[in-house]
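Form 7-S
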Amino acid sequence: MENYLDIFVKGVFIENMIFAYFLGMCSYLAVSKTVNTSMGLGIAVIFVLGITVPVDYLIDNYLLKPGALSWISADFADVDLSFLSFIIFIAVIASMVQL
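Output:
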C-alpha cells in the first residue's frame, strides 16, 4: 500500500509535467499583454531569483543535505532533511517576493 501511495505522490506532485508547465506559465500569462509589462516581469523574476538562489544554496548545503547538521552537534550527523528542499525553495521565493 505504501508503494502505491509513493507512486501517487510522485505522479501528482513531483513528476507531473503539466503541473510544472502551468507553474512556469502563470506569471507569463498574467502580465504579457504589452512589451513594457513583460519586460518588467522579466526584470522582477531575474531580481528575485538573483537573491533567492544563493540563499537557497546556503540553506540546502548547510541545513538540508544529509549530514549537513553535523556542525551543530555530532548527534545531528545522521539527519537528512533533503526531502524539504523543494518546499524550502518555494518558501524562500515567496518570502522574498513579500519583502
